[in-house]
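Quick one: structure tokens for this chain, please?
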Amino acid sequence: MRNEQRDGTQLIGRVASILRNLPLGTGPGTGKRLVDLSKATGLNEATLRRILQALVRERLVVRDSESKRFRVGPLPLELGLASGYLARFSTQRKPLLKRLASETGLTSVLAYRSGLESVALIEEAGGNPIHVRLMDQAGRLPLGVSTGGVALMMNMNDEEIAEVFELPVYDTIQLTREELAKRVHRARELGYADISDVPIQGIRGVAVPVPSYASQPALVLSVVSVRDQVQDENIPQIVETLRKYASKVSEAVAEA
């Protein structure tokens, strides 16, 4: 009986590790190869293949028929929506976003990754209002376009970044694919995203990913204002404050 319990607990841990290391993307070419997933989880390919086959049957994981790559399936999202978790999480985090906006004087935004998009979840105005409701004008955008969308790509490797920007949706973006990739690479070097004018002219935003046990962050925290109100000399303090609040959001996720 003890061996069975140990084996069951070990299997649950392995499944959690696999899901944490799988991307959420839905476009062609997205997903992780078996060999890369094996390196990320420490599982040998034979064991990993058997577990993935079971996860695919249960719709926890999807395997692309052409690329043979794996990504998170629809069932986790369905379960999350059914639980009402997102709505409760949003309501519970509003006071935290209000404190961040009050401390910085800037509009604070908490966004999450949905497939290959960044979606604004909470927006709280600071002492320097921007007279633009971000959730209306830039509430849902492809990854790499908004400040938060850039920060959500910071943990991707070069191959994953290139695959995302190859998708047709980026044909209509104001910036070229090369310019978008430069944004992500710069954010990766800095450890935070600092974006001006695109997607909204005259607006500057700074963002950091919310710490996560997953290989790719699912949440991102930003502060945004009119470009002239965010001075270069203030960026280090803004980033420090953002990271402090991002850690608080991460703790809240773990406790939920």
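The two ends are 32 Å apart (CA to CA).
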